[in-house]
C-alpha cells in the first residue's frame, strides 16, 4: 500500500472530443468536491470551449495543446513522487495521462471501469468518436501523437456492457482481461491484479443510469456500493493514481449545478477508501 503517499489534484476541462459542454462543467464541479473532501487545492488545465462535433483528426488537433499540458503535469507530479488524482471531462484525456504513467511505473495495472472498452481505432470506429479510442491509443493500437507504451496485458476492463463489434472481437480474443458487473467484482479483480501497483480510470457511465448524470446511459451498471467495494480493494493494493471522467452537469444552470454537486459528493464518498490511501486526506 502507498503508506505516506501524497496526492495532487488536477482538473482537466479542455477539449477532449466533447460532444457537449456538460463534461467540462462536470469536471469543475467534481474537482471542487475533491478539493473540499481532501482539503487540497487543485491545478486547473484548460477551459470550457464550444464543442466541435467533428472528425477525430480535427478533435485531436484541437485538443492536443491542452492534452500536452496535462501530460506535462503528470510528468511533474510523478517526477516529484506525487500521486495524481484527476477529474477530467472525457475519457480521451487518458491519451495524455496513461503514457506518462506507464513510463514512470511500467509494472502498473490499469483498472478501466467503463460501460465501453474504448478500444476503437481510426480504422475500426464507425463514428470517429475520439473518446472511444482512448484506451486503444494508450496501448499503441493507433498513434495519437501523445505516446503509448501501456501493454494490453496490463489492463483490466471492468463493467463493460456496450462494446462495438471490433471491440467485442478483441475481448473475445482475450486481448484485454474483463470483469463484469457483479458482487464478485472485487474478488475477480484481486485475482487479476496480483501484487502489482494499480491505477484506476473511472468513466462514470460504468454506474447504473440515473445514479449520476452521464452522456451515455447503459443499463446493468454498478451501484455506488459496488464502486466503494472496488475502491476498498484497490486501496489495499498499491494504488498509484486515480482519474475520473464523464461526470457531467445535466444542463447548464444553477439547479443542475446543485444537483451535480450532490452527485459529486456521493461519488467522492464511494471513492473515499482509495482517496485516503492515495494520501488525499
Automatic annotation (TrEMBL):
GO CC field: cytosol
One Pfam family, short name: Arginase
SUPFAM superfamilies: Arginase/deacetylase
Record keywords: Hydrolase, Manganese, Metal-binding
InterPro entries according to UniProt: Ureohydrolase (IPR006035), Ureohydrolase_dom_sf (IPR023696)
One MF term in the entry's GO annotations: arginase activity
Similarity comment text for this entry: Belongs to the arginase family.
Name listed for the protein in its UniProt record: Arginase
Source organism (scientific name): Actinopolyspora mortivallis
Amino acid at each position: 500500500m502507498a503508506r505516506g503517499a501524497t496526492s495532487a489534484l488536477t482538473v482537466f476541462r479542455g477539449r477532449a472530443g466533447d460532444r457537449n459542454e456538460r463534461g467540462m462543467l462536470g469536471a469543475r464541479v467534481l474537482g471542487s468536491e475533491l478539493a473540499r473532501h481532501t482539503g487540497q487545492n487543485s491545478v486547473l488545465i484548460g477551459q470550457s470551449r464550444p464543442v466541435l462535433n467533428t472528425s477525430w483528426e480535427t478533435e485531436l488537433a484541437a485538443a492536443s495543446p491542452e492534452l500536452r499540458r496535462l501530460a506535462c503535469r503528470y510528468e511533474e507530479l510523478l517526477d516529484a513522487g506525487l500521486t495524481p488524482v484527476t477529474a477530467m471531462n472525457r475519457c480521451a484525456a487518458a491519451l495524455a495521462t496513461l503514457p506518462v504513467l506507464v513510463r514512470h511505473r511500467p509494472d502498473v495495472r490499469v483498472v478501466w471501469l467503463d460501460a465501453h472498452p474504448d478500444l476503437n481505432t481510426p480504422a475500426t470506429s464507425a463514428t470517429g468518436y475520439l473518446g472511444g479510442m482512448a484506451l486503444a491509443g494508450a496501448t499503441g493500437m493507433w498513434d495519437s501523437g501523445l505516446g503509448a507504451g501501456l501493454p494490453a496485458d496490463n489492463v483490466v476492463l471492468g463493467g463493460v456492457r456496450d462494446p462495438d463489434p471490433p471491440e467485442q472481437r478483441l475481448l473475445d480474443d482475450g486481448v484485454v482481461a474483463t470483469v463484469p458487473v457483479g458482487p464478485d467484482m472485487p474478488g475477480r479483480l484481486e485475482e487479476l491484479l496480483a501484487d502489482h501497483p494499480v491505477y484506476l480510470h473511472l468513466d462514470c457511465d460504468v454506474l447504473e443510469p440515473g445514479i449520476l448524470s452521464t452522456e451515455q446511459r447503459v443499463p446493468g451498471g454498478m451501484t455506488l456500493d459496488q464502486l466503494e467495494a472496488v475502491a476498498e480493494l484497490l486501496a489495499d493494493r498499491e494504488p498509484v493514481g486515480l482519474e475520473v471522467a464523464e461526470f457531467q452537469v445535466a444542463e447548464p444552470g444553477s439547479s443542475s449545478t446543485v444537483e451535480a454537486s450532490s452527485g459529486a459528493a456521493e461519488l467522492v464518498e464511494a471513492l473515499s477508501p482509495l482517496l485516503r490511501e492515495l494520501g488525499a486526506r
